[in-house]
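Convert to structure. Protein one:
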Amino acid sequence: MPSSSNLKYLVSVVSLSVLLAAAVIFGGWAYSGRQDYKNNTDKKIAEAVEIAKAAQKQELEAKFAEDSKLPHRTYKGSLTYGGVTFNYPRTWSALIEESSSQPINGYFHPDVLPPLDSKTALALRVELINSEYASVADQYDSQIKDGSLKAVAYIPPQMVNVANVQPGLKLDGQLTSDFSGSMVVIKVRDKTLQLSTQSKDFLKDFNDTVLANLTFVP
């Protein structure tokens, strides 16, 4: 039977051997990693440069797209029907019909306006109709109750504190079975103004350009 001193010596030797083996393995792994990095440095740098270029390209394209919308165009409706006025990007095409039966019936979309009978989600739809505000707002009650539309009271920023302006509705969600977006319903004298974007892709333009500059004579 080994003596106590021999046993301690044996344990020490085994422990040192294990530590040495671990050090060798770690050293080999570290060396392999360094070699891989050294051998692939140029490739990794090139990949990083391409990623940076792609990100910069996307950023520049996005900035160009926003800049190309300026200066905004302005629609000014007849004072007979409340002088509805708002801005929209100059890159949008517009078709606006005006008549006594429907004072404003407008369609707006980037570049080329799609066929009106298509199911393309329009960037902006504007209607001033000969119906009382309450009757129009009531049409959305069921969608508000079932949660497909979220409704909040709304006054356009430019109309806050203007005399005789009544709060309207801002509706967000499933506007129709085909389109999901945002709509504003507002009383304009004895008529009702409805502005909507039929796609979430145009929400920034809708909120920051159209609604932000919307005015009318109550």
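Protein two, convert as well:
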Amino acid sequence: MYYSHPYIRSNSNTQQTNHSINVVGEGMISVEPDRAIALLGVVTEDKNLSQAQRKNAENATNVINALLQQNVPRTNIQTFDYRINLNYDYKEGEQLFRGYQVTNLLQVIIEPVDRMGTIVDIAVENGANTVRNVQITVANKEQFYEEALKKAVEKAQVKASIIAQEIGVSIRAVPFKLNEVPTREDGRPRPMVLGVSTENTTTPIEAGQMQITAQVEAEFRY
């Protein structure tokens, strides 16, 4: 039943006994993603460090220029990681120096999301050879979360009213306590998988929908 423990509590420490109904309300809305985020990178290897850096810089510059030509704002292109690693091979227990590896990762924001496949293909055509952490999300996450939060409060009020009606009491419309509960999936970017493009096709993107949820804990007294 709705009114079983732990929904109903009483406090006998005050002169007037306070009874309360405790509920959890959850709100959820479905939204269509309007933004894609990806790490597009250039990885080069060479036994000569200067050569590896030069090749990497040339390819990375080509990728950036290609993105700008596709009307990706420069503010949507940001260096995410730049590193130089030493590569070794191991043969019969012996460590053999193979060369240097230079990695330059760019975080790119693409809007709208359906341009993602085209942008990835163009980046690869112009020198990018690694694509990582492709995600889809929405630009105004806070706005959608607030809508979900409003639904969560309304749901808590409805649940408390049902419980009160079931046990034959009247509750106050305004909750005595109302706490927002952090959710694990509150509209954060979620990963997606890119299909493989061929010579005459564009890398397919299936953005689908994403769920934004909010949760509250409420205490109503009667």
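Helices lie at 49-69, 116-125, 141-167. The first strand starts at residue 8 and ends at 11.
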